[in-house]
Write a structure and sequence with these properties.
Strands 1-2-3 form a three-stranded antiparallel beta sheet, with no helix packed on it. It has three helices and five strands. A hairpin with a 7-residue loop joins strand 4 and strand 5. By secondary structure, the protein is an alpha+beta fold. The protein is globular, with a radius of gyration of 21 Å.
């Protein structure tokens, strides 16, 4: 079978890096911006940051908010009062995954009735929502082994510390 998918050029790729900090805490570097993830106390974490799954839902909510905000800006309407609430539920059966996401956009009070449908249409077509509708090809692989290379965990006398 021939692959007809166009090759992604390296200039089109965006990158972020995740490194272990301690326990269940991981640091995310996105274009020099730092984020962290952790797990709740009940799941063995220290609850110092959102979980990756919460960031997944937050990505959708913030993308919806951004698109809604830009719609309002284009139409000369205020963004004050615009908010987005997202609720999600995990699947009860394996594999572990988000089973349902519900997003509610609260428009500014000044939004005219005749603009509500347009705001919803634009917000519903944000990049993250479009990606969920048409999932990307996703691959996960291990970095090739390098002879003599040790990980932090395997290095003798090396204490786990912050990156």
């Amino acid at each position: 079978m021939t692959d007809t998918t166009p090759a992604q050029s390296s200039k089109d790729l965006q990158r972020l890096d995740v490194t272990h900090v301690e326990g269940d805490v991981y640091a995310i570097d996105v274009r020099g911006h730092q984020l962290r993830v952790d797990q709740p106390l009940g799941a063995g974490g220290t609850d110092t940051a959102p979980t990756p799954t919460e960031l997944f839902a937050a990505s959708l909510a913030t993308c919806v908010a951004f698109y809604a905000g830009r719609y309002l800006l284009r139409h000369g309407l205020p963004r004050t009062g615009l908010s987005v609430r997202t609720e999600f539920a995990m699947a009860a059966d394996p594999p572990a995954r988000v089973a349902a996401v519900h997003v509610v956009v609260t428009p500014p009070p000044e939004l005219p009735e005749e603009r509500r449908a347009g705001l919803l249409a634009v917000a519903s077509h944000c990049t993250v929502h479009n990606t969920l509708r048409q999932p990307p090809e996703t691959t996960i692989e291990l970095e090739p082994s390098t002879p003599g290379r040790r990980t932090d965990e395997s290095a003798p006398g090396r204490a786990s510390g912050r990156p």
